[in-house]
Amino acid sequence: MELFLKADTWLALLTLCFLEIVLGIDNIIFISIVSNKLPEEQRTKARNLGLFLAMFVRIALLLTITWIIQFTQPLFTVPANFVFGEAKSFSGKDLILGFGGLFLIAKSTMEINHGMESDEEHGHGQKKKKVVVTLAGTIVQIILLDIVFSFDSILTAVGIVDPDKVIIMIIAVVVSIIVMMFFSGHISRFIQQHPSMEVLALGFLILIGFMLFLEALEFKVPKGYIYFAVAFSLLIELTNIRVKKNRKTNPIKLNKKAYNKAESEKKPTPSLSKEEEGLKYPIGKFSPKDNYTAEEVALCIERIESLPAKLESAIKNLNEQQLDTPYRDGGWSVRQVVHHVSDSHLNAYIRVKWTLTENEPTIKAYDEKAWAKTPETKLSPTLSLDVLKDLHKKWVALLGGLTPEDRERTFIHPDTSKHVRIDRTIAMYAWHGEHHLAQITSLKERKGWA
Fold first, then answer.
1. Residue 121, helix vs strand vs coil
2. pLDDT, tens digit (0-9, with 9 covering 90-100), for 262-297
3. How far is the C-alpha of 91 from the C-alpha of 270, rounded, in Å?
4. What is the pLDDT of residues 150-164, one digit of tens each?
5. What are phi and psi of 329, to 5 degrees?
6. How far apart are CA 106 and CA 441, in angstroms?
7. Of 17, 27, 128, 363, which has the highest C-beta tally within 10 A?
8. What is d(CA 46, CA 60) in angstroms, rounded to the nearest whole number?
9. DSSP per residue over 260-310, as a string?
10. How far apart are CA 208 and CA 191, in angstroms?
């Protein structure tokens, strides 16, 4: 314990932690890409379990530090030839870095090829064989690549800390693995949401693999050049993503005269009086938030779950004339409101499914006013209630099983080009159902219907 009473111990530990984290960036990129090939429910487990096991591998290597240092001693020598010019000696470290670099180049190239090729067609109408990715296989890849990346970090540690102070190195390794576990999920989701980032990341890995191979041949390439190229490319791509996002939310008006003419021809939305506003929005308009807590989302799901029973109770005992009564002047009839809720929530369910299974999909908008006038909206509202009951059972089961990461996924609305999160959608439709329910109940109160 006296070791930790010295200032130089803490300075060495902080320096080593920083270097371990920096040297682990390429490791995190690789882990994020290979884990994204798994089913979503297995990705976090694969990342954390792979890193956890890799941590023990690193600690085991550190405990055999004397043996590791011997890996730099020549194992065999290749006579002078036209490739090297003079005799070249290879150590255990050279072999590990060389084969590890080649594996990284091959793996990254295959991943790029997999992304570029069609999943469905290959050749003359033949279906391409789908490679089955397993949890165990992914974890093995993470551990093997971590061993390759570990040599750099372990030899760096030996250069900073005396070999007899292994405890400092072990603490630095544990800290770096914890940091990797924390950031790997965020990086994985970011890469998944932006396919161009995955291609760029694979390009980084090819570059790093080539650097490892050159290092094995003792062609020294200053790592500062590599990291600068990586950082510069990353900055350009992040700027590109930001520009594309701004163009979606704020599209450029190329023809100003045509745009101004179109704007002037738009029919103005008639303003409502306070009384009409109260009838149209009896519980007020929806007020979205930037973020929703897990507790808030759970409450919204409960409100969605209880809606069909409340709606059924609200229209119970209403006769045909009452069902065809508009809830306000110029508004939909009770019958149309119930059919609309069923149609709207069916669309919402599909939007959530799209968002969970595709990368930021642009959803299909629909004309709800036109939908409210189609022939089946004249049928009994109990038909839509039956749909709602079964639909909400499925929808609530789906929403209740979402992870915090799932709730942050977004779709793009074609009318506004805005990115809408799933948690905001859940809150909006919890409000939406109660909004239309209140239109019916407030009408009953005004009319004195029992």
1. strand
2. 555 555 556 667 888 888 999 999 998 888 999 999
3. 81
4. 665 665 555 555 555
5. -60, 125
6. 65
7. 27
8. 21
9. HHHHHHSPPPPPPPHHHHHHH-TT------S---HHHHHHHHHHHHHHHHH
10. 18
